[in-house]
Amino acid sequence: MNKLTTSSIEVEINDATDASAELLESIQAAVRSAAAIRQFFTGSIGVAIVDDDAIQTINREHLQHDYPTDVISFAYAEDPPHVEGELVISRETARREAEELGWPPEHEILLYVIHGTLHICGMEDQTPAERLEMRQAECSVLAALGIENANRYGADGPMDAQPRGPN
């Protein structure tokens, strides 16, 4: 993949309180680039950046999990090259995880955007092989966005390390 793959996917970002213009542009690029890896180039993906309380409510109401989480993906249409979906991301979880991992919260948010977009585009991460494929795709998109050494950050640690558990 070259720097960033061209895509006409419409990206609508909601509830991005105190997000910089640079982060908003990076979120759009992350969605489009992650979708392109999966051969999706048209459609729309909404992104909502919320607090832990809001994502916990969504998690409880839609997935019957009563706890906050990092990202929730809703896929509505997946017919290459067209995709439709929504992501909900917790800015508070991103801040906590980024601090623990030692990288900027904006990078953690982008990781969640990429991860969620890959799910919307049909990628799974239930088996070790799927998790490795997902992690490689995430790192590829992060690198395309100019975030180097992303494989050192994340729930699974370096890509050659054993996964530490579900995300």
Secondary structure elements and pairings:
Blueprint: E1 10-14, H1 21-37, E2 42-50, H2 52-63, E3 71-79, E4 82-90, H3 91-101, H4 105-120, H5 128-144
Parallel strand pairs: 1-2, 2-4
Antiparallel strand pairs: 3-4
How does this structure look, described?
The chain is α/β, with parallel strands linked by helices and 167 residues long. It has one domain: Collagenase (Catalytic Domain). It has helices at 21-37, 52-63, 91-101, 105-120, 128-144, and strands spanning 10-14, 42-50, 71-79, 82-90. A 4-stranded mixed sheet has the order 1-2-4-3. Strand 1 (10-14), helix 1 and strand 2 form a beta-alpha-beta unit. Helix 1 (21-37) packs parallel to helix 4 and helix 3 (91-101) crosses helix 4. The protein is globular, with a radius of gyration of 15 Å.
Q: Estimate the helix proportion, in percent.
A: 40-55%
SS summary, helix count: 5
Strand order in the largest sheet:
1-2-4-3
CATH architecture: 3-Layer(aba) Sandwich
| Derived structural class | alpha/beta
So what's the CATH class?
Answer: Alpha Beta
Shape: globular
The domain tally reads: 1
Name the descriptors.
single chain; 167 residues; alpha/beta; Collagenase (Catalytic Domain); 5 helices; globular; endonuclease
Summarize the structure.
Helix content is 44%, strand content 19%. With 167 residues, it is α/β, with parallel strands linked by helices. It has a 4-stranded mixed sheet with strand order 1-2-4-3.
